[in-house]
Amino acid sequence: MGATASGRLVGKIALISGGAGGCGLAASELFAQEGAKVGIVDLPSSRGEEVAAGIRAAGGDAVFAPADVSVSKDVTAAVKAVESAFGPITVLFNHAGILAVGPFLETEEDEWDRLMAVNVRSMFLMTKAVLPGMIAAGGGSIVSTSSISAVAATPMEVLYDTTKSACHMFARAIAVEFRDRNIRSNAVCPGFIATDHGKRELVGLAKYGIDVSDTAIAAQQGRLCEPIEVARAALFLASDEASFINGTHLFVDNGFTAV
C-alpha cells in the first residue's frame, strides 16, 4: 500500500466486521494504510474479496473471511482464518450492523430478532472469539460502532435505537472487566452518514413523515458524515494514541448530541 500515512497501526492485526462496505470499507483501507494487517469479515455475497485484493495490490496485507456475524460457527471460523493468516488479533472493530425503520406497533418479532442478532449478538460472538488471543498477545483495542441513536431516540427506529444502546453499554462493560488485562474497549457513535446504509435510513424515515431534508440535517449536524470520518475516529481509538482512553463513547456527529 506504499508508504503508510503515519504508521499508527504498524504491528497490529486488525479484524473489521462489516469491513467490505460503507464505514467498514473506509476503515479496512485506512487501517491497512496505517500499517495494520487487516482481516475483513463480511457476508459471502459482499465485496470482501475484492476489497482485500485491492489492499494487497496497493502493497498492504489483507484477507477476506466470509461470515454471517450473527452465527457462532461462522464467527469462530472467520476469527481462526484471520489468526492463521496473521497471528493474534490486537485490534477488533465491531462494525457490522443493519437497521429497520417503521412504526413500532407494526414490528414483527423476527425483525426484532434479526436486528438483535446482527447488531448485538455479533459483538458478543466476535469479542468472545477474539479476546483470548488478544489477551495472550499482551492486550489490544476493541472498537464497536454505536450511534447517536443510543442516546437520541428517533421516531420509527425503536428496534435500531435499542440495539445501539446495547452497544453503548457493551463497550463500557468490556472495558471495566478487562482493563487490568490491558484491553481497551470503546465505542464510536456516528450521526447520519453518507453511505448506502445511511441513505436507506433517510429514505425510510422520510416515508413515515420524519423531516430528514437537507435543511433538517443541516440544522442537526451541519451535513451528512462521510465514511472516512467514522473510520478516522475508529483509527484513533484503535491506535496507541488512545492508550488511556477506555470505556468511552466518541461521538462523530458534529454536535448533534451536544444541542
Order of helices and strands, N to C? EHEHEHEHEHEHHHE
Strand line-up across the major sheet: 3-2-1-4-5-6-7
Helix share, percent: 40-55%
Q: How would a textbook summarize the main sheet? A: 7 strands, parallel
Residue share in β-strands = 15-25%
Short description:
The chain is an alpha/beta fold. The chain has helices at residues 22-33, 48-57, 72-86, 109-136, 158-178, 196-207, 214-221, 227-238; strands at 13-17, 37-42, 61-66, 91-94, 140-145, 183-190, 249-252.
Features of the shown structure:
seven-stranded parallel sheet; globular; Rossmann fold; single chain; 259 residues; alpha/beta
Structural overview:
46% of the residues lie in helices and 15% in strands. The chain has 259 residues and is α/β, with parallel strands linked by helices. It is globular and about 50 Å long. The protein has one domain: NAD(P)-binding Rossmann-like Domain (Rossmann fold, 3-Layer(aba) Sandwich), CATH 3.40.50.720.
